[in-house]
Amino acid sequence: MASLTIKGIPEDLLEELRRSAEQHRRSLNSEVLWLLERSVGPSVVDPESFLTRLSRLQDRTTVPPLTDDFLDEAIGESRP
Predict the structure, then answer these.
(1) 25 or 44: which leads in pLDDT
(2) pLDDT for 53-63, tens place per residue?
(3) What distances in angstroms separate CA 10 from CA 14, 16, 46, one per listed residue?
(4) CA atoms of 31 and 18, how far apart (whole Å)
(5) Are 16 and 24 in contact (CB under 8 A)?
(6) Is 26 left (phi over 0), alpha (psi -120 to 50) or beta?
(7) Distance in angstroms (rounded) separating the CA atoms of residues 55 and 52
(8) Nearest-CA neighbor of 50 among 38, 58, 42?
(9) How far is the C-alpha of 48 from the C-alpha of 76, rounded, in Å?
(10) Residue 32: exposed, middle, or buried by beta-carbon count in 10 A (0-12, 13-18, 19+)?
(11) For the chain, what is the largest distance between any 2 Cα atoms, rounded to a whole number of angstroms?
């Protein structure tokens, strides 16, 4: 397996990485690998969980859904 040396890490970033590793009960190396894999690896989205999260967000907002009728009305209000 290959190795990588990272130079010039700001001290505050290193402390954040250490805290994150401790919080997730991982070594610093494992935490950095996990974060790298997550940031450059393929992103697989479960449609069911995405729609559930979206529904919860919609329940917490006062903005009406963007339906065709809503958009037509909003456009009509902006015209003289």
Answers:
(1) 25
(2) 999 988 888 87
(3) 6, 10, 35
(4) 8
(5) no
(6) beta
(7) 5
(8) 58
(9) 35
(10) middle
(11) 67
Percent of all residues in the chain with a pLDDT value above 90, rounded to a whole number: 57
d(CA 26, CA 32): 9
State the pLDDT confidence band at 44, using cuts at 50, 70 and 90.
Answer: confident
Burial 64-76 (b: 16+ CB within 10 A, else e): eeeeeeeeeeeee
DSSP state of 1: -
To which residue do tokens 């697989």 refer?
Answer: 44
Q: What is the pTM of this model?
A: 0.52
Q: How far apart are CA 1 and CA 29, in angstroms?
A: 14
Question: What six digits make up the tokens of 77?
Answer: 């209000």
